[in-house]
Amino acid sequence: MKTSIATVSISGDLGQKLAAIAAAGFDGVEIFENDFLAFDASPCEIGRMVVDHGLSITLFQPFRDFETLPEPQRSRAFERAERKFDVMQELGADLILICSSVSPLALGGIDRAADDLRALGERAAQRGLRIGYEALAWGRHVSDHRDAWEIVRRVDHPHVGLILDSFHTLARQTPLETIRSIPKDKIFIVQLADAPLFQMDLLSWSRHYRCMPGQGDLPVADFMEAVCATGYDGTISLEVFNDEFRAGSPRAVAVDGHRSLTALVDAVARRAPALGINAPAMPPPVRADGISFVEFAVDGAEAERLGALLGQMGFALRGRHRSKAVTLFSCGQANIVLNEEKEGFSHSAHLLHGASVCALGIEVADAAATEARAVRLGAEPFERQKGVGDLDMPAVRGVGGLLYFTDRTSALSHIWEVEFELEPPRPTTAGDVERVDHVSQTMHQGEMLTSLLFYTSILDVRKTSEVDVSDPAGLVKSRVVENQAGTLRITMNGVQNRRTQAGRFIAETFGSSVQHVAFATSEIFAAASRMTEAGVPILPVSENYYGDLDARFDIEPDVLKRMRALHILYDREPNGGEFFQFYTEALEDGFFFEIIERRNGYRGYGASNAAIRIAAQKRHARPIGLPRI
Predict the structure, then answer these.
(1) What is the DSSP string of 49-117?
(2) Fewer CB atoms inside 10 Å of the end CB: C or N, the chain?
């Protein structure tokens, strides 16, 4: 299948859009008429620009309110079409989209619509052009692809075909089985878009909230499987109306679009191998098992202070790199790497963001296969500077830093022993950190869809529903990607302004991504007691919180008293799952650690406590501009 994207899907003028679309790897482009009209170049010049970029024009669109009009409007509609045909021939486009009419003058009627499209098809044939008919979900008389197909079937003309759009079908919950019986040669192009599930009018939903396949909640893969069951192997094209995309980077959105189509075709080919879909060659989504390490970019003084804090939290200095200024702190299965190198990616990250998380290690089933899939899906590979004896560790540039991939089936399972001079592990004690429970990445809200698609297309993980986190200065949108076992969890928080706690973090660190790391323990009261005694700056929680907690939950008085004394927060799920958490005070321009304990299968993140945590952090925040740790 060939890939295409509509120019309306991304920002910029037509020239910028074409450059971004070509750079992302698309085969073709839909020219949206408004983009054409606003661009100061002749149709012939635009056509040459498309060819010069190595693209083809897959569709010229849209042509509105054509069919079943009374006279004199009907004759005028044919005149308008002829003018569009003139433009198409100069552009070098051979297919135009006719969307079902929304005109209050439209008379309706399947036979009347078929007569109009047949007559237009004859005119198109004389010029070597084709017309594709699409049912708008809000069309006045035709709003269902089944009716649109019946009209095209009755037209019975080789230059008149059907255009299928996933949004228009899925938004109305039209049965997908009805697609499978459509002859493949009568499907002229397939347009794809996803969307979050909202309760709103179809037009507003479509015009503002569409997104790339895999970024929303619609069953786009089911739709695509039904299309492929017809034998269709033509162009699949993205038509995405989204306010954030139109305000974002054209290249970034185009890359997301190409990634989404590649991942979609791969997913459908794997779930329906009998269809014989010619999918791009790459490994399947790889099982992810957890966070193998968190790497900080620091200088000498910062490394000393952060290392001291980790020691207070129970981490041991486990080893020093054999040839680099890199140290390893470990506790249980949690590994923290402090990188003080004066060159390379970590040093560049430190110059830009200050002391910050510059890389994450993700343990997967097969590190090499994960990198291969990521690169095939448009991720940029990264090769770290290796010292003598260092291993090849697959890596790509990820969201806000590097993603390294480790596994237990290759030499990477011994990376610490190979690359570091290790000290013996210290004995475990009650309340020890056992592993990384989750990392929390903070980003501008417009970057969240990119992040979701990046993780879910590469790894075998799922995304959760969006949650609103209340900050006194505004809402923060939060979503999570996690594996089925709950051993890998990455939370993403999208901010709209810098006045929120998360927004301030982005502003002060110039876009640094990981704002906090949460460690899991099985004895949180012991952990809080020991860390408090060791001098860890625990975030104080308001007394009012515990009064409300006592009213909402049946908690033993002695337990509640200990929680109050140790500043431990609490949540409970309807199934009985319990969650305990406490935080360090904010460090590094808003970065902080969290300690959590999950009981009885709790799967959440204590979302109801977020406002309490944010308020406490604001009370104890250092003024902007004070020295970092």
Answers:
(1) HHHHTT-EEEEEEEE-S-TTPPTTHHHHHHHHHHHHHHHHHHHT--EEEEEPP--TT----HHHHHHHH
(2) C
Of 262-271, 497-506, 555-564, which gets the smallest average pLDDT? 497-506
Q: How confident is the model at residue 620 (pLDDT cuts 50, 70, 90)?
A: confident
Q: Which helix (H) or strand (E) holds 190?
A: strand 187-192
* Residue 585 three-state SS: coil
Q: How many helices (H) and strands (E) does the chain have?
A: 21, 25
CB neighbour class for 52 (10 Å; exposed up to 12, middle 13-18, buried from 19): exposed
How is residue 590 written in tokens? 């808003």
448 residue type, one letter:
M
* CB contact at 8 A, 443 and 490: no
Residue 173 burial by Cβ neighbours in a 10 Å radius (0-12, 13-18, 19+): exposed
CA gap 466, 461 in Å, rounded: 16
Give pLDDT tens digits for 390-402.
Answer: 999 999 998 889 9
Angle formed by the axes of helices 524-534 and 557-566, nearest 10° = 30
Distance from CA of residue 550 to its chain's centroid? 38
pTM for the structure as a whole:
0.91
- Reference 294, options 483, 441, 173, 417; nearest CA is 441
Contacts of 355 by beta carbon, 8 Å cutoff, 6+ apart: 296, 297, 298, 299, 302, 306, 588, 591, 628, 629
The secondary structure element, H or E, covering residue 336 is strand 334-339
Phi and psi at residue 464, to the nearest 5°: -95, 170
Judged against a pLDDT cut of 50, whether residue 624 lies above it is answered with: no
**pLDDT (0 to 100) of residue 48:** 97
Token representation of residue 422: 């290790």
Helix, coil or strand: residue 474? strand
Task: Give 166-195 pLDDT, tens digit per residue.
Answer: 999 999 999 999 999 999 999 999 999 999
Quote the CA–CA distance of 94 and 434 in Å, as a whole number. 62
Q: List phi, psi (to 5°) of 329.
A: -115, 135
* The amino acid at 131: I
**Domains of the chain, start order:** 2-275 (3.20.20.150), 288-422 (3.10.180.10), 435-619 (3.10.180.10)
CA dist 214 and 216 (Å) reads 6
Q: What is the DSSP letter of 258?
A: H
* Radius of gyration over every alpha carbon of the chain, rounded to an integer in angstroms: 28
SS3 240: coil
